Amino acid sequence: MQDQILHESEALLPHLKTSRNKYINEAIEFYNQHHKRKLLEEQIAKESKIVSTDSMNTLQAFEALEDEL
Predict the structure, then answer these.
(1) Is the dihedral of CA 13, 18, 19, 20 positive or negative?
(2) 3-state DSSP helix/strand/coil percent for the chain, to nearest 5?
């Protein structure tokens, strides 16, 4: 851990009335959740694009069937 970050954290701990270990664990948990959410957003956007393309292909196929009828 960088000294500046450690010193800032140490200065906050008495005001937060928590231990350094708990503070660091909560910070890492928060950061992990943030990154999980970003990865999920990226995955959803990717899959949404795939589904969108498939949906358009299906729509065109149905339109072609309608034109034949």
Answers:
(1) negative
(2) 90, 0, 10
CA 40 to chain centre: 5
Predicted TM-score (pTM) above 0.70: no
The distance between the two most distant Cα atoms of the chain, rounded to a whole number of Å, is: 77
CB atoms within 10 A of CB 24: 14
Can you give the three-state secondary structure of 20-53, one letter per residue? HHHHHHHHHHHHHHHHHHHHHHHHHHHHHHHHHH
Q: Write out pLDDT tens, residues 4-26.
A: 999 999 999 999 999 999 999 99
